Amino acid sequence: MTTYEVRSHTERLRNRVFSIVTDAIEMPGGDVVDRDYMVHVGAVGVVALDAESRVALVRQYRPAVRQVLWELPAGLIDVPGESLVGAAARELAEEADLVATRWDLLAEAHTSPGCSNEKIRLFLAREIASVPEAQRHERTHEEADLELHWIDLDEAVTMALTGEITNAACAIGVLAAAQSKARDWKNLRPANEAV
Questions:
Q1: Residues 26, 82, 108, 143: which is the catalytic one?
Q2: Cα–Cα distances in Å, from 97 out to 22, 28, 62, 100, 143?
Q3: pTM of the predicted model, to two decimals?
Q4: Helix (H) or strand (E) holding 75
Q5: How many helices (H) and strands (E) does the chain have?
Q6: Which residue in 138, 126, 161, 160 sits closest to 56, CA to CA?
Q7: Residue 92 belongs to what H/E stretch?
Q8: Is 143 a catalytic residue?
Q9: How confident is the model over 29-62, as pLDDT tens digits?
Q10: Half-sphere CA count of 104, side-chain side, radius 13 A
Q11: Helices 153-161 and 168-182 meet at what angle, rounded to 10?
Q12: What are the tens digits of pLDDT across the range 93-105?
């Protein structure tokens, strides 16, 4: 296998979520070329399934695509010391006002490896309940208009396959949940599996 030696690494921009960097990389044949990409903090997402095999999907506005998208409850790994399943539980509560008592690791994916190192870990949450009204997270900005929808898992699969769901993590999560259910959940991994 060819190795791609990084000759230099330059950070161009940094914020709390990502940085933009340029790597000078030696290619096969000896040319050294610059490649720009985003270094991301990472993310988690939740496929929350209720007892009727309905998945909790949210509608959220995304400025980069200027659209409201179907998405899983999901968010950044940005709380120091928080476990990944803990981050997923936090996001489920904050974005969908839901809690779960059963958690499994469903899938992992690089969301856009052509321009970012972002990796999302997707969890399956079951045995779902609502967060009590008095304990609910106060949503602001784009999250203030989040709409929670319970969609039959088979219908969500159709939405992913017909392009109604275009968010990569949501499509992967829905398809992985459907396949896992078809396999009687035997391919699930422990929620706290090491990264």
A1: 143
A2: 40, 51, 20, 11, 12
A3: 0.91
A4: strand 74-76
A5: 3, 11
A6: 126
A7: helix 84-96
A8: yes
A9: 899 999 999 999 999 999 999 999 999 999 999 9
A10: 17
A11: 130
A12: 999 999 999 999 9
